[in-house]
Automatic annotation (TrEMBL):
InterPro entries on file: Glutathione-S-Trfase_C-like, Glutathione-S-Trfase_C_sf, Thioredoxin-like_sf
UniProt domain GST C-terminal: residue ranges: 114-247
Domain of life: Eukaryota
Name of the molecule in the record: GST C-terminal domain-containing protein
CDD domains: GST_N_Beta
Amino acid sequence: MADSSSLPKLTLYLASGSCALAPHILLRELAIPFTPFFMRLNIKGGSGYEAEDGSFSAEEYKKTVHHSGYVPALKVVIEATGEEDIITEMPAILTYIASLAPSPERAARLLGATPIARAKTISWLAWLSSTLHGQAYASIWKPKRFVDQAGADVEAIVAQVGRKTVIECYRQMEAALERDGGEFFIGGGEGQPGLVDICAYLFYRWGVKQKFEMGQFVRYEKVAQAVEARESASGAVEREGGKLVFA
Ligand SMILES: N[C@@H](CCC(=O)N[C@@H](CS)C(=O)NCC(=O)O)C(=O)O
């Protein structure tokens, strides 16, 4: 999409420290105008998010924006046609944003210039979402999703397994970088990070937060450093009130 006046109106529902950082960075990277809408955890209800400014509840968010009550969600309004929709799930949100890149060439490079490159991009994004996030990190942060027996002991075991799975995922990521020998997982062309690299940066941050020894993943660390060095990433982290990892 070359003409910025024909861009849809975008609202990104996000929360500080959450995985919504990845689409937040990508929107800034591509200089696509959007409205950030900050959400906060629905502490009383135990799960999901509600509007940080109190304008709607977690229940309303679930009904009107994200069917699971999660972030990120991207609201898209196409003024010319009156079309309005909500996109959920990280791979869908990131690939949609990439399709709005300022030039078709940039969009193609971000999505994968060949059918195989495109499949690989989607493969990485799906794996990061399902295995690293939905299985490994969810075991640490949301052990109740995996066991229906009450009890701190059972949950602690699930979380412990989750930590092992996270490390195994990071090992696989490091091995892939070593095998491919590139600067990025799948770059966006011309030395720029791609969708996968931006997503990987988010998970690197979580690794640091969880006090994993991230320095052992030398190549992955370089990818994270390269992403954080960009204004898009540092600006997004700052806007969300977070701290840079390599400052
Ligand atoms: N599969 C979803 C997962 C999104 C997700 O789990 N988001 C977290 C924040 S990082 C969330 O909203 N958690 C709320 C909850 O588990 O109640 C995606 O890839 O977008």
